[in-house]
Design brief:
The protein is mainly α. Helix 8 packs across helix 9. Keywords: DNA-binding, Transcription, Transcription regulation. It comes from Halomonas kalidii.
């Protein structure tokens, strides 16, 4: 208990964010209450609201935490690759690994996108998705310039297919309750995506 009293305000906020993400892995985000968050943390709702002025502010902090970390993860993975297509694959695998570590993330982001009102957190999710699409499109443009893509490939469609491939893989894993299997399934799934976009020689590499 003493350790809890000595947590800094920033550490308490981060602990709240991590708690929300953990709860989203097993509970419906739309029904998640501040009471449930506080109980999971072993604090009162009053203690929770000393660090967040509202429930919306909690969701904003959660989306900000996810956005910063997922983009850092995929950018670092792509930066370590030696060619654009290899960077796309590294980005794909890093994203999947992040979801395996934080299985509540897909559900909480989808929950915010489905929100009935235009909340700040919903706008933040849309902004995150826009930035993510920009990263993919930029890598595809680099791959085209390097001659790695098949002639006439629609880059916008390839970008959306990249995102849709991850989403489909994740949804099936969540439905089956086998999120950890994503790491085994991801290489084969990306290989199919790569085959669809790559120039003949690159598709077989």
């Amino acid at each position: 208990m003493a350790a809890k009293r000595h947590l800094t305000a920033e550490a308490r906020r981060e602990r709240t964010v991590e708690t929300v993400i953990d709860l989203c892995a097993r509970d419906e985000p739309a029904t998640l209450t501040t009471g449930a968050i506080a109980r999971q943390m072993g604090v009162t709702q009053g203690a929770l609201f000393r660090h967040f002025p509202s429930k919306d502010a909690i969701w904003e902090a959660v989306v900000d935490w996810v956005g910063q970390r997922v983009m850092q993860r995929v950018d670092a993975a792509a930066a370590g690759a030696d060619a654009p297509l290899a960077a796309l694959e590294a980005m794909f695998m890093a994203h999947v690994a992040f979801i395996v570590e934080h299985p509540g993330v897909p559900r909480l982001l989808l929950g915010q996108l489905q929100h009935a009102r235009p909340t700040p957190a919903r706008r933040m999710v849309r902004s995150l998705l826009f930035r993510y699409r920009e990263r993919i499109t930029a890598l595809l443009e680099q791959a085209r310039a390097a001659g790695e893509l098949r002639e006439g490939l629609d880059l916008e469609a390839a970008t959306m297919q990249f995102i849709g491939t991850i989403q489909g893989l994740v949804i099936q894993a969540l439905m089956a309750g086998e999120v950890t299997r994503l790491l085994d399934q991801a290489p084969g799934v990306f290989a199919i995506y790569r085959h669809g976009i790559a120039a003949d020689g690159e598709a077989r590499s």
